[in-house]
């Protein structure tokens, strides 16, 4: 075995051990992955901002794409509303939690409500804008249940409170109800498209 193969083998073993520690600590990964996957994905990467990107997905990530943001929204969906609720559920540092909540309030995802005297106690209530993230959370959970945990290993099931049955999977459908795949979709410039966006579409058709 050459020296490079030995180094790759050692790196793979280190990454596998790191994966096992994560799996035991968080209980949120059950599918085995190769060491090459972890060696590639666990390298630190710089944080890129999306504020100037003319794309709905980029702009959504600018608001809720930071670590912890969607987890905070998840807890709020299921009833958390006070700082201590989020801190206890997530085990997140106070300064990071404060920063994320302030960010989500600034962007209209939460409303900070004074429930004490002289501003001593606050609750964080989801706004309509925050409630609209529910399908995003459900879709992410469904994706992880299917492709990370695997069927039959879902850590949490979402049920209809009235019927007690599992909520049907979210699907992209046409106006007549037909299920659509990515091959059925055609992106075109929208009314808010920038000149650069329009230019990219025009150049891709040439």
Verbal overview:
With 206 residues, this protein is mainly alpha-helical. The chain folds into 2 domains: 3-41, no CATH class; 49-186, Winged helix-like DNA-binding domain superfamily/Winged helix DNA-binding domain (Arc Repressor Mutant, subunit A, Orthogonal Bundle). The protein is 49% helix and 5% strand. The protein is built from 9 helices and 2 strands; from the N terminus they run H-H-H-H-H-H-E-E-H-H-H. The protein has a two-stranded antiparallel ribbon. Helix 1 (3-26) packs across helix 2 (35-41). The chain is globular and about 65 Å long. It starts with a helix and ends with a helix. Mean pLDDT is 82; it is low at 3-16 and 18-45.
Hey, roughly how much beta strand do the residues contain? Answer: under 5%
Q: Write down the CATH class of the largest domain.
A: Mainly Alpha
Q: Note the run of SSEs as H and E.
A: HHHHHHEEHHH
Number of helices: 9
Largest sheet data? 2 strands, antiparallel
Q: How does the helix and strand content classify structurally?
A: mainly alpha
Q: What is the level-2 CATH architecture name of the largest domain?
A: Orthogonal Bundle
Strand order of the largest sheet: 1-2
First-to-last CA distance? 50 Å
CATH H-level homologous superfamily name of the largest domain? Winged helix-like DNA-binding domain superfamily/Winged helix DNA-binding domain
**CATH topology term of the largest domain:** Arc Repressor Mutant, subunit A
Tell me how many strands there are: 2
Question: Which oligomeric state applies?
Answer: single chain
Shape: globular
Q: What average pLDDT do the residues reach?
A: 82
Low-confidence stretches: 3-16, 18-45
Can you tell me the number of structural domains? Answer: 2
Residues in helices, as a percent range: 40-55%
Determine Rg (CA atoms, Å). Answer: 21 Å
